[in-house]
Amino acid sequence: KKFVVLISGNGSNLQAIIDSQKSANASGQICGVICNKADAYGLVRAKKAGIPTFVFSRKDYESNLAMDFAIAEQIEKLGAELIVLAGYMKILTPEFTQRFEGRILNIHPSLLPKYPGLNTYQRAIEAGDSEHGTTIHFVNEEVDAGAIVLQAKVPIYPNDEVEDVVARVVEQEHQYYPLVVEWFCSGRLLAENGKAYLDGKE
Ligand code: GRF
Question: Which residues form ligand 1's pocket by a CB distance below 6 Å?
Fold first, then answer.
């Protein structure tokens, strides 16, 4: 299956997915990287890997709806069957998420339903939590709320700063996001009626 990756920034998760494709018999193939920031470092990563890149800037469109429509048309033109959000920092319109229902994955740095939205690390540390983590989930029209595929936990130690916890969480993300993409592309993972199924089991 072909898939696109949507990014806004550094693209370290994109890099992990690119690297995982080098291993033999990956079921998926990245057919494009779509970005809403022209200066994102992730675009450099994509170009280095020879992946076509497409930049969509909000200022070039009269509405979010118009921008998301243009992105959706590009995705269909590429023939992508899966949309992988990897640090895409713009909320997608319901028109977009409904058009690709069950075919959008996101990775969010918290143990959802805890801490949807921004600054999750700071919020977890300030709350005195002893663990944090990352969630890979299908995307619906509600932000950070679709069916959960996988969560990975890491400890928070008493004197941790944000960057200590970030380092632990991103290591998990880079390990698991490529795996989940492969599950989807090989047909093992699917979403139905708002639930995620791996090998037919919820
Ligand atoms: C990741 O930590 C992910 O959880 C969040 O945004 C971050 C993106 O990092 N959604 P990168 O651009 O993949 O390095």
Answer: 7, 9-14, 42, 86-87, 107-109, 134, 170, 173
131-138 and 104-108 strand pairing: antiparallel
Beta strands across the sheet bearing 2-7: 53-55, 29-35, 2-7, 82-85, 104-108, 131-138, 148-155
Q: Which of 108, 132, 137, 174 is catalytic?
A: 108
Beta bridge pairs of residue 104: 83
Q: Is the pLDDT of residue 6 over 90?
A: yes
- Burial, 70: exposed, middle or buried (Cβ in 10 Å; 0-12, 13-18, 19+)? middle
Write the single-letter amino acid at 29: Q
pTM of the model: 0.95
Atom 7 (ligand 1): residue with closest C-alpha?
87
User: Residue 35 corresponds to which tokens in the numbers above?
Assistant: 């970005």
Sign of torsion over alpha carbons 23, 29, 32, 36: negative
Mean pLDDT of 161-168: 97
The per-residue pLDDT for range 18-56, each reduced to its tens digit, is 999 887 788 999 999 999 999 999 999 999 999 999 999
